[in-house]
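Notes to self after the call with IL:
- keep both proteins in one doc
- input above output, always
- annotate only the second one for now

Protein 1:
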Amino acid sequence: MPGTLYLIPNTLGPIDADSVDLLGLVIPTEVQSLTARLDYFIAENAKTTRAFLKLVAAIRPLAKPLQEIRISELNVNTEASMLPSLLAPLQAGQDAGLISEAGVPAVADPGANLVRLAHQKGIEVKPLVGPSSILLAVMASGLNGQSFAFNGYLPVDPAERAKRIKALEERSRQERQTQLFIETPYRNSALLEALIKTCKGNTLVCVATDLTLPGESIQTRMVANWKEELSSGRMPALHKKPTVFLLLAG
């Protein structure tokens, strides 16, 4: 009988070992317990997963010493031909945990193809409760939570990025739909400035940073107000901080 593929949520950013009690605020006790009993993980980033398992181990003992736990990587560079081998232990009856670098796996994450293959091979897939930056941002933004779309990363080229922003703003206006996107953390400030300079003054823009982490900041303003912030030098500190951007056209 095949094992079960558990979709294990991770924290949305690093938690200091001295603040391990914060783990319980975002990862339910039952999820921690299940994670601790697994000894095979398929992870977007092995280093991040080891750090997460160390936090879990500080609260409850792991099934094996950390150095003996098997972690196979699955990321954007993993070829499709490698996916069956990642599932081979499950087909032999072993349970496994699929874990993202941050947040929930298979959402804005390369794990979706593995989950689909697991279904095709008759492997049970069990999602577990944990933090999703996308949903948390929608919840806290005050924008339309009845209709929203996640668009991943926007183009890096300034002209292409402005074109894409205008297209998303127009879609938001026509469908009354909240548009979400993210950026590589060191380019966060450039993206916010692009939004401010490209969108109309009555468009709402939310910037949700460090969600569930000690430095959490969630700010929703009209673009006209963001422009005032920009001109006065009071922009939020976003550099190298995980951030979700949302807009809703007026």
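Protein 2 (the one to annotate):
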Amino acid sequence: MTKRPVLLAALILGGFAFVGTTLVVVTERLTAARIEQNHREFLLKSLHEVLPRDELDNDLLADHYVTRIPELAGDRPLTVFRARKAGKPVAALFSPVIAKGYSGPIELLVGVYADGRLAGARVLSHMETPGLGDRIDTSKSDWILGFRGRSLGTPPEKQWKVKRDGGVFDQFTGATITPRGIVKALKTTLEYFRDHRDALFAHPADEDHKTENHRD
């Protein structure tokens, strides 16, 4: 007589556990899918802030590959997106390029036109001091927008520095390290593009999104 209530209680508890576990799994999958979608939308928005949609006709998120370029991203993987129009190379976008800031690494999205000019740059994340170094953010300042159209010839390579170091680029009052790091990262990106342009556009797309240990 005593076994039936115990068995019934066990079945009820087991049922609750099954339902609870199922709800957790379903919720996790739905949440993960939404997070991934939000990430894709944010990434695509950032890419088109650097390179307007009307300048290309391919799918940037499909035409990309992941590689390692220590001079641009240290030991982190770096994604190269390729923009094309009518099958011809338009620009390569590098994310994330790592610059050394005052308070830590600064993650950049950098676009370079096929002719070697900067399409633009945006800060993806940083830990710079509010009111000083955070002026690299477009919501605080248009400083970083001024690099669009620059190349290794405009200004000459030796002048790719902040003014305090003898270059042509403005620094922030009280915050030289942050703009210095970004200027150096942009120059290094332009140099890498100049030396690897053809290989960047010829590399097969990374369809399975797996990180490669390959360098062109």
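Annotation: The beta strands are 64-67, 78-85, 88-100, 105-113, 118-125. Residues 51-202 form one domain.
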